[in-house]
Amino acid sequence: MERAQAAALVSTGLGLVVLGLKFGAWWLTGSLALYSDALESIVNVVAAATAFVALRVAAQPADQDHPYGHHKAEYFSAVIEGALIVVAAVLILKDASEAVLAPKPIDMPLLGVAVNGAATVLNGVWAWMLLRRGRAWRSPALIADGRHVMADVVTSVGVLAGVGLTTVTGWLLLDPVIAALVALNILWSGWGMVRDSVNGLMDQAATPEMQEQIRSLISEHGAGALEAHDVRTRHAGQATFIDFHLVVPGEMTVAESHGICDRLEAAIEGALPGAVVTIHVEPGDHAKQRGVPVL
User: Are 190 and 91 in contact (CB under 8 A)?
Assistant: First the structure.
């Protein structure tokens, strides 16, 4: 099993453990805020399972119907997760509005806070690992899952604060009010996740830093060519598609120009894991004098 898929599968298992702890905390206390936190964790489990399925699809090799591979399946996972976060936030706001009208006292608050706190720590550690690995492996699905779990952590911290303040002050209204504020923060997180995923589905270019690195690699490893122009990039999951026109002297043989292309492809793909390079060779009179000069 591919490493990103394994991480998503572990995330699903841990999500079930956290879900059980949070529902246990709600059962002990009867706190609406803790119930809302547990409700958000249901979405978290579904999102992790969705990420696992998306990664399985994205890992499939290119075929006749999908000659460029299935990399974009990860973006669909991220969009679904963002939408689920929005659903969770709306549900929390609904429950919080009802609780504002009829606040209820909290039973066994210390034990409930302890159980929920343990789940929150577990979630926080795993969210940090998911985000770190997702960025290192350039996996939108893992990054989206990590952000989702981190949003759950934010929810839990806000809920714990609400339960604690309600217990100390006796102001029952604090419980649903703080839950509502945390729900608004979750909505913002979900919007950011959907926005990033849509950019990927729309073939957003690589970052300016990566584009500059690509140009430097072309300049350093393109000896024998004259220039490269029309350098284009786009992300698709863990893959980065790179294509450009390489201008070579008109008298150069096909074999010689092909050798330069092989060298460039090896250099770029070696420096940028997941890079897929396509080079179009042109004769010298096609130089634009504004592309990437070859050193």
Answer: no
* Distance between CA atoms of residues 226 and 64, nearest Å: 36
pLDDT of residue 243: 94
Short-list 121, 260, 91, 89, CA closest to 188: 89
State which CATH number among 1.10.260.40, 1.20.1510.10, 2.60.200.20, 1.20.1250.20 fits the domain covering 3-201. Answer: 1.20.1510.10
- Rg (C-alpha) for the chain, rounded Å, is 25
pTM for this predicted structure: 0.58
The CATH number of 208-293 is which of 1.20.1050.10, 3.30.499.10, 3.30.70.1350, 2.60.120.10? 3.30.70.1350
Distance CA 144, CA 130 (A): 9
**Higher confidence at residue 199 or residue 224?**
224
- 3-class SS at 276? strand
DSSP H helical ranges for the chain = 3-29, 32-58, 73-101, 109-136, 140-169, 174-201, 208-221, 254-271
